[in-house]
Structure formats: C-alpha cells, structure tokens
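Annex B. Sample input.
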Amino acid sequence: MKFRYSFALFLLMIPATRTLAAERATRSTAEQMRGAAAGFLALLNEQETSLAVMPFNDPRRLDWHNIPKPQRKGLQLADMSTAQRDACQELLKTALSDSGYEKVQRILSLENNLKEGEKHLANGHVRDPERYFLTIFGKPDASAPWGWSFEGHHLSLNFSVDGGVIVSDTPSFWGANPATVHDFVQGGPRPGTRTLADEEQLAFQLLDSLDQSQRAVAVRADAAPQDYRAAGKPQPPHTAPEGLAAAKMTEQQRNLLRKVIVAYCEHLAPELARARLADIERHGLERVHLAWFGAQRPGAGHAYRIQGPSFVLEFVNVQSDPAGRPANHIHSVWRSLEGDFGIPAN
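Annex B, continued. Sample output.
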C-alpha cells in the first residue's frame, strides 16, 4: 500500500501516547513477516540453511554496513533459486510500502550503473545487483525473539521481533549512486531517476524556508562531513541534538520538517511507519532539531541531521558519482536512540 496521506490526518488516527493500538498494528506485520520467513526457510537445503540462518544472539546480527564488502553474512540472491528469490521478495514486501519496495529495486539496479562506471577499477566485481544477502536470526516464532536482515551495497534493512511484535526496524540505511542518473546503462534506472529525491529536495525546501536568524542556528558548518557517524557500529552516537529546534520554527516550517520525516518513514509498511511517527509525536515534535552542514544549494557537498529524543536521521551527499559529478552520491540512515536491533540503549 502507498503511504501518502496528510500528516494532519495521521495525527487524528493515533492516540496521544503509544498504546496497544500501535502494538496491534506491528503485530499484524510481524505475523506476515513470520509467515514469509518460514516460507523462505522451507525452500532451503541443509547447506543453504547453514548460510541463511544464524542464532538470534549471534554477534553477526549486529554486523551491518553499507559499503561493498567482499564478504557478508547470509545467503545471497545470486545463489538462490527462482523460488527462493521470489520468497525473499515476499519477505521484503511484508516490511516495506509499495514505494519502499520499488526504491529497494532501484537501489539494487544502480549496481549496474556502478559496474559500468567502475569497470576499470580492481574492485569492480563487487558491483552486482545480485550481491544482496538475506539472513534469518533465530526461528521465526510468534513468541520467541527472532529477526532478519537484507543487506548489500547502499542498503541495510534490519528487523527484530519479540513476543510477536516488531521491536526494532533499525539501523535502516538507504543510499544511491548516482543520486541522479545521467546516463543510460543496461539494467539500470532510466536517465533522470532520483532514487532519494524527496529525502533531498524536501530538506532543501525546509532550509530555504528559514529566515536569517533561524539559518544561523541551523547551519552548523560550512563544510559537510565525509559520511554519516558510527557507520557499521551496533549503536548510534548518543550526542546532544544540534541546530534549530522545531519549537523555534513556524507552523509552515514544522510541516516541511514533518514531510522530510515522513519521506523516510514511508519506506516502511504502513503499520511500521505509523508506529514510528506515533513515537516521534509522543516524545514531542517540538523537540526535534535540524542541523545542516556544507553547501546550501545542490551540486556541492551537503548534509543534514534530524534528531529527536528517540531517533536520529543523517543524510550525506558529498561524494562524486562514477563520472566525477560532485555531490551525486547519497548516504542516509535512520537509527534509534532507544536502541538499534531492539537492544535497549544504556
């Protein structure tokens, strides 16, 4: 289902605090995940199972990253049969909205663009739309803890389930290179495609809406960081929020901030997205901060951080694409300050 309704309507649909209503919603999605994961596992032989299944408490559950690693945990798409691939896709669909699932497919297809653009490099062989890996942690169960991940270059999806409820959907990494496709490559998206367009453009609209005094608070540095913080770490950095608080924004600006947040939440299945947004409102949108780093116009390195009491979202567009176009390579990650992987923060 698409997750495209107004935030005002959304606020009418949730209680003031996170209650059993949100849990029941995630419980429904968790049950769909459980069924899809069990269906996938039923198709594996012993050797495939040894790759695809790990204990829930295996330290490798926390081993995630967006880089094109030569070795990863799990069973990769390239080694799956047609039936297994179909079952893997069904599991992905339980966790994602229609638009989120389509975005995942574009991220995978961009590996064809990278393979073509980097064919002269020694590591060109790791650019492959089939080098994405599915791992199931524990036994999919209606009561016991279990989880799963789907990961490869520029994508890391991690879900943890306990007591039949989804207790974590982070870390959640989404990247794109090239961020805007300029050249046609067989198997890649059409020219003009922007895989993370709303995530970037809406943030620029929010920045542009700030007056001089607000911008002086929101813009933290003239240069953008080279990447997001704590890449590959089991837990996000716990630092004080920086920048401009939503409490200091106009209502129009807060609506733009909401739109940026929704752009990320709508990657997920609607029930998960609503639970995420309800949690943000429960803690208070006015406590969410925007921090900007680097260029204030597209085409040069820029980054932003949106942080509330329970989450931190980081977006970085600094690196060039394979053709050398600057700031055409996006990294974005959503993390839980209450604990990634369902592990409570200290």
